[in-house]
Design a protein that fits this description.
This protein is α+β, with helices and mostly antiparallel strands and 348 residues long. It folds into two domains: 91 residues; 235 residues, BirA Bifunctional Protein, domain 2 (2-Layer Sandwich), CATH 3.30.930.10. It contains twelve helices and ten strands. A seven-stranded mixed sheet has the order 1-5-6-10-9-8-7, with helices on both faces. A three-stranded antiparallel sheet has the order 2-4-3. A hairpin with a 2-residue loop joins strand 7 and strand 8. The longest helix is centred in the first third of the chain and has 38 residues. It is rod-shaped and about 135 Å long. The structure holds phenylalanine. The site of phenylalanine (PHE) has 11 residues, from strand 8, strand 9 and strand 10.
Length: 348
């Protein structure tokens, strides 16, 4: 076969050979077998010198044609294969964003904190400020400033947890109520006073259905030039209606606290039964639920903090936060608040 026929055959066979290649590696091999030194085209190139001079231009032109045609075929096939390769990689490496990811359960505020927030918000809505004080407290603020005599039984170690006990002037204890903040606030601030004090409180109590040694209270204190007992009742009635529902009513029973005079306990009408349903899980059938202690600030307290009892009057109240939450949600044992069982916690 002469050189021209060899080249023509190489040109005519190349398209099918190139099209049949399926990978870039195979294409490289094909390239050397089509254009390399030992390929038919390569052999013609090497034999150029032995040709008769008059034949050389024709064969040379055909040689170029073959080289260009085959190179063009190879180049375009290479581009195709590179495209396919990239497409395949994109597909393999793509991330399925529709796949469900790991989700963590969402936490929520503890019911005690929710209750504090809600109750405090009601008083903030009436213009009260939020105050706080230390949990490790001087006996003076917890008792003496609050008109509590040295002989009062609540001062005994059987009721109060002392951090430092002995000389009443230096005694440090875990506050048994939020009331010491009454004295602290008045000592450091001029009247008028309208504050609520949410906080943790401690007593020497064994855990049972209604007692925890660590619990929470919200104190309320209003001192101004013309505060009357009716203001106390109206304020607490407003609170009860906001917290337990607009149908709520309140009643007061006489009580005793050293730091208020007169003092009272406040009951709220049972919202679970319409009053007096025998065996009601919330009120037990009485129609009333005992809620909190309150009263008119004793003049001795005003005097102890440097306020003038001739100019000022006030009321105070202290409500148990656990109690509020238990009554509102029909929770029958206070231990649920500290067990941290999510089956309880996630209900609120
Ligand atoms: N500090 C009282 C208690 O813990 C409650 C109270 C507060 C009563 C303010 C009257 C006024 O029982």
């Amino acid at each position: 076969m002469d050189s021209i026929s060899t080249l023509d055959q190489a040109i005519s066979q190349a398209p099918a050979a190139v099209a049949a290649v399926a990978s870039l590696e195979d294409l490289a091999l094909l390239e050397s077998s089509l254009l390399g030194k030992n390929s038919p085209v390569g052999e013609v190139r090497r034999g150029m010198g032995k040709l008769d001079p008059p034949d050389r231009p024709k064969v040379g032109a055909k040689l170029n044609e073959a080289k260009e045609t085959i190179t063009a075929l190879l180049t375009s096939r290479r581009a195709e294969l590179e495209d396919e390769d990239e497409g395949r990689r994109l597909l393999e490496e793509s991330i399925d964003v529709t796949l469900e990811s790991v989700t963590f359960p969402k936490g929520s505020l503890h019911l005690i904190q929710q209750t504090i927030d809600e109750a405090v918000d009601i008083f903030v809505g009436l213009g009260y400020r939020v105050a706080s004080g230390p949990e490790a407290e001087l006996a003076w603020y917890n008792f003496d400033a609050l008109n509590t005599p040295l002989t009062h039984p609540s001062r005994l170690e059987s009721d109060t947890m002392y951090l430092d006990w002995g000389d009443p002037d230096d005694e440090v204890l875990l506050r048994t109520h939020t009331s010491p903040v009454q004295a602290r606030w008045m000592e450091g601030n001029d009247p008028p006073v309208y504050i609520v004090v949410p906080g943790r409180t401690y007593r020497t109590d064994t855990v049972d259905a209604t007692h925890l040694p660590v619990f929470h209270q919200i104190e309320g204190l209003a001192v101004d030039t013309d505060i009357k007992f009716g203001d106390l009742k109206g304020t607490l009635l407003h609170f009860a209606r906001e917290f337990f529902g607009p149908q709520s009513t309140v009643r007061m029973r006489p009580h005793f606290f050293p730091f208020t005079e007169p003092s009272a306990e406040l009951d709220v009408s049972c919202f679970a039964c319409d009053g007096g349903e025998p065996g009601c899980r919330v009120c037990g059938g009485s129609g009333w639920v005992e809620l909190l202690g309150c009263g008119m600030v004793d003049p001795n307290v005003l005097e102890a903090v440097g306020y003038d009892p001739a100019q000022l009057t006030g009321f105070a109240f202290g409500v148990g936060v656990e109690r509020l939450a238990m009554v509102r949600h029909g929770i029958n044992t206070v231990k649920h608040f500290i067990d941290n069982d999510v089956r309880f916690l996630e209900q609120f």
